[in-house]
Amino acid sequence: MAKKIKVLVWNEFRHEKYEESAKNMYPKGIHGTIRDFLSNETDFEVRTATLDDPQQGISEELLKDIDVLIYWGHNYHDEVRDEAVEIISKRIIHDGMGFIPLHSSHESKIFRKLMGTTCLLKWREANEKERLWLIEPGHPIANGIPEYIEIEHEETYGERFDIPTPDTLLFISWFDGGEVFRSGCCYIRGMGKIFYFRPGHEICGAYYIPEIQQVIKNAVRWAAPSNGPIPILGKARPFPRT
Amino acid sequence: MAKKIKVLVWNEFRHEKYEESAKNMYPKGIHGTIRDFLSNETDFEVRTATLDDPQQGISEELLKDIDVLIYWGHNYHDEVRDEAVEIISKRIIHDGMGFIPLHSSHESKIFRKLMGTTCLLKWREANEKERLWLIEPGHPIANGIPEYIEIEHEETYGERFDIPTPDTLLFISWFDGGEVFRSGCCYIRGMGKIFYFRPGHEICGAYYIPEIQQVIKNAVRWAAPSNGPIPILGKARPFPRT
Amino acid sequence: MAKKIKVLVWNEFRHEKYEESAKNMYPKGIHGTIRDFLSNETDFEVRTATLDDPQQGISEELLKDIDVLIYWGHNYHDEVRDEAVEIISKRIIHDGMGFIPLHSSHESKIFRKLMGTTCLLKWREANEKERLWLIEPGHPIANGIPEYIEIEHEETYGERFDIPTPDTLLFISWFDGGEVFRSGCCYIRGMGKIFYFRPGHEICGAYYIPEIQQVIKNAVRWAAPSNGPIPILGKARPFPRT
Amino acid sequence: MAKKIKVLVWNEFRHEKYEESAKNMYPKGIHGTIRDFLSNETDFEVRTATLDDPQQGISEELLKDIDVLIYWGHNYHDEVRDEAVEIISKRIIHDGMGFIPLHSSHESKIFRKLMGTTCLLKWREANEKERLWLIEPGHPIANGIPEYIEIEHEETYGERFDIPTPDTLLFISWFDGGEVFRSGCCYIRGMGKIFYFRPGHEICGAYYIPEIQQVIKNAVRWAAPSNGPIPILGKARPFPRT
């Protein structure tokens, strides 16, 4: 039997505790909603953690047993302790843990550290229509996805998105108000795979849309560790001459 | 004194001869309009050629003296003789001639040959608004370009655009009718640089817009040959052991 | 139960019929050897075909039932009929069939067509040592692969290799005689995934090396179709305004 | 008259002060040697700075007048104050200053910050032969460069080099002792262009080799700011509907 992919869904979980509109939209928290739809898959084993958990829900102990980390943060990026950022970064770069930052996590400490740029962008909260166009239909994350995904109401993000060129650009969003955005971005960093995925404002309902759920499921499978060799770095002897 | 960049603007030149609306928009032909604005640059030396010229305006003799080829074709791609396609391809791949296919040239024989894919896309003629968002403001082709360029009325192109992932993606277009499109795509192929640039429907006036002109001028300078070494290919002797 | 990946191993199969040294090295033909080690995998269903088969072993009928095509050709590329090249290309670009050209297939009609460049390189037959360094240990094709793979005696290939920049560069080879070579190159073209893999001279024994076999097994799984949407290309209506 | 490119050559400058072998090789310091050969170019205006200068030779005041920063560091990366790293990073990302880290600068704070990975590698000091193969002869940095550059004695670096996939891979090194290395790596980060170039051990003489000098000159021109638009990031209003 194939080994299950161990997923941790980490959520800031403040909006859904303290703001009526977010609480109404995601009564179980965003992490709870994501956990629920992932748990239907027989090849996943899913846990959740939040910012207000002990150790902010992030420790070496916990992460060493995680294959893929899904991450949602927004207003409290600065509260995340630097040690947690180091732990996550090391798990990705050294050990190949997959990392799926969602939506406003573009501005999280960990994503900015991994990218090396500001990761800033244009934005507004105007309940605009978003249409995510699939750019690489041959990619594993395109499995079962239609040509485009529509979200009736979403927060708007717009270019320039200050990120490194993605290794693969999967989705480009069209917004009613006139912007475009690189909404699905694949990277390899060290041993780890990263997939930034844009949708998911806390008072809109993107994570209830089956196609959005399918993208995240596909991304988990794509981002799971590949079982390649840990590179031996540092001082090295020459090979014998033949 | 620096050597001038020798530019050939090649145009199918049928719409502007035989169709009233295109003739009115581009009385000198699209090639004439492009030649005019390029000729203002002191570092360019510009010529034009068209499909109905002797040898369809494309011969080894002519191209061996050209640094950058700008190319506009649409309804008569199939008329272009295969020999001409070979001549252009060889000049790009072997000799490093720059190549700037415009608009409907996405479906030209030469572009499809260079890309290896169908280069098909979605399209409609609906006079929609196009907004080209600049994705890489640090790239040489971004010189003097604003954050976005608006074209009031244009033919619409939409993804999926069946091309290889660009080496650099410079522009993404937003269209009024709901599509997005990768409108500025840089490639290196062999010794040559290629820049596909989307705008330029024959009855809209994109080539009169100063920012569009600036993109094309920048692209000519970027695509000019780099004077690197011609690789020696084929059978090779080993290096002596030390 | 998961669907099996249907693999076709196509081989020119002339060296191993008519040349003693190749026949001794691969008595079942290169295709037979590859089939044998792939057939140990329970998720593969493997067939073979060769140039001297009816229809050169390539027809629409046959390929429409194939998920991944492994391809070895060398001295008789020109004999492959253009129709066969079209059939393979269409299956890759339109339908997402995976394609794994091996060794001297770099110069095959089909690979050159897909790449758009000459695909030429430096080479010599000098029984040199090759050491393939793994560049992206986080990639799925790195599964179970060591840091480097050594081949005691191989034909030498050297840069410049006239190909488009790979979407992902997986292996770089070091050769005893002083060259380097991009030996493992991933591309997406249309709906299909392509993995060029260098080793496999007909009189050396690369395909008997377990790590080389493992790379090819990994590549088959990586290149299998992703079940993304077939893009709808051509004339398209605008979306209704909201 | 075209504006000159303002170059700052920054050097740790400890080896050449305190170690006999490095002092003998570079009596003016590595920065002095690089300054000398760059100063022959009429389009460059060159300054130098070192770690033991006031403010470690790096301040906002100084950098705001610099177009391209060449950087050599090795044993004292940790001494570079975090404020200096922030200043350099901001000038690159926000303002488009070019950045050319050389040799052991792969492990500098600033390069690691920009890359987001460990940037570690294999190495040894064994006076081996290095042969840098040019992989993209059509790139501007290939101007006037031969197919390969040989360095008789150099420190050896080997893969795995833990960096993000370069936007363009220009050079791959072959080393006598059996390793390969991605020796010339182009990146765009924010508004800025980055070119990592491998050669330059403090007791070998790489910076006296004309072809190595030519690569650095080309890289300065390539990395100079492109005069694109500073993106407007943050809250944005929708465009008016038409």
What does this entry show, briefly?
With about 240 residues, chain A is of the alpha/beta class. Chain A is built from 7 helices and 10 strands.
Commentary on this structure:
- 4 copies of one chain form a homotetramer.
- In chain A, helix 5 (82-95) crosses helix 6 (109-115).
- The first copy, chain A, has 7 helices and 10 strands.
- With 242 residues, chain A is of the alpha/beta class.
- The mean pLDDT of chain A is 97.
- A 9-stranded mixed beta sheet of chain A has the order 2-1-3-4-9-8-7-5-6.
- Chain A has a domain at 5-116 and 185-223: Class I glutamine amidotransferase (GATase) domain (Rossmann fold, 3-Layer(aba) Sandwich).
- Chain A starts with a strand and ends in a 7-residue tail after the last strand.
- The first copy, chain A, has helices at residues 15-18, 20-25, 29-39, 60-63, 82-95, 109-115, 210-223, and strands spanning 5-11, 44-50, 68-72, 98-102, 122-134, 148-158, 168-175, 180-189, 192-197, 234-235.
- Strand 10 (234-235) of chain B pairs parallel with strand 5 of chain C, so a sheet runs across the interface.
